């Protein structure tokens, strides 16, 4: 028993000395609030561009003080990492091209992201009438095959409704649908019903 204890003591004496404890002040030292806020913003900006209001909301949810958030956002804006005009332009271009959204929908999205009305309007107005018409026509052409078994009146209602949900105004929607359906054969008597439907932008097309 004594021999085993002696061996144990000898091994212990040859072991590494224990690490000194870390002072509490190093473990509990508070992080600089502005550094924390900046890190939050930069992490969000690595996934996609964001409006200033989006970043401010994210900082508020993390309980960053308003004055700290304002200073950090001002510095990011000075460095061109936060730019609502550039953000709005990029958002409009991407959402119009890839999602097929019309001007009304795009303006609504920018408003919900806290972009000022004038900035949003400038970005949305970059989409010309011809561009919006072409994108709406592409949406209609893609949907038309699924409506082949329906008469023109039913197809027209569904197509106009689809464009309305995408944020196209009635003038664009009715013009595009009329043009697309005019290229399809029309059953006898269906052409008059279709003309009546598409002649009145205020008709029930949902």
From TrEMBL:
Residues 83-123 form the RecX second three-helical domain. The keyword Cytoplasm applies. Residues 130-176 form the RecX third three-helical domain. Residues 1-33, 185-206 are annotated as: Disordered. Belongs to the RecX family. PANTHER family: REGULATORY PROTEIN RECX FAMILY PROTEIN. This is Regulatory protein RecX. It comes from Actinomycetospora rhizophila. The lineage of its organism: Bacteria, Bacillati, Actinomycetota, Actinomycetes, Pseudonocardiales. The gene is recX.
């Amino acid at each position: 028993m004594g021999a085993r204890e002696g061996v144990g003591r000898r091994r212990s004496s040859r072991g590494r000395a224990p690490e000194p404890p870390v002072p509490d002040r190093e473990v509990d030292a508070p992080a600089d609030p502005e550094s924390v806020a900046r890190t939050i913003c930069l992490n969000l900006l690595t996934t996609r561009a964001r409006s200033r209001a989006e970043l401010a909301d994210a900082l508020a949810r993390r309980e960053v003080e308003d004055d700290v958030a304002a200073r950090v956002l001002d510095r990011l804006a000075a460095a061109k990492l936060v730019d609502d005009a550039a953000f709005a332009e990029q958002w409009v271009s991407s959402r119009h091209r890839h999602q097929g959204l019309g001007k009304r929908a795009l303006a609504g999205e920018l408003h919900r992201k806290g972009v000022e009305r004038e900035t949003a309007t400038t970005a949305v107005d970059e989409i010309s009438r011809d561009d919006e018409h072409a994108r709406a026509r592409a949406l209609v052409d893609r949907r038309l095959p699924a409506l082949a078994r329906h008469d023109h009146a039913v197809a027209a209602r569904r197509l106009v409704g689809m464009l309305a949900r995408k944020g196209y105004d009635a003038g664009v929607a009715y013009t595009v649908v009329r043009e697309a359906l005019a290229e399809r054969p029309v059953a006898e008597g269906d052409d008059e019903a279709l003309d009546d439907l598409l002649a009145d932008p205020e008709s029930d097309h949902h």
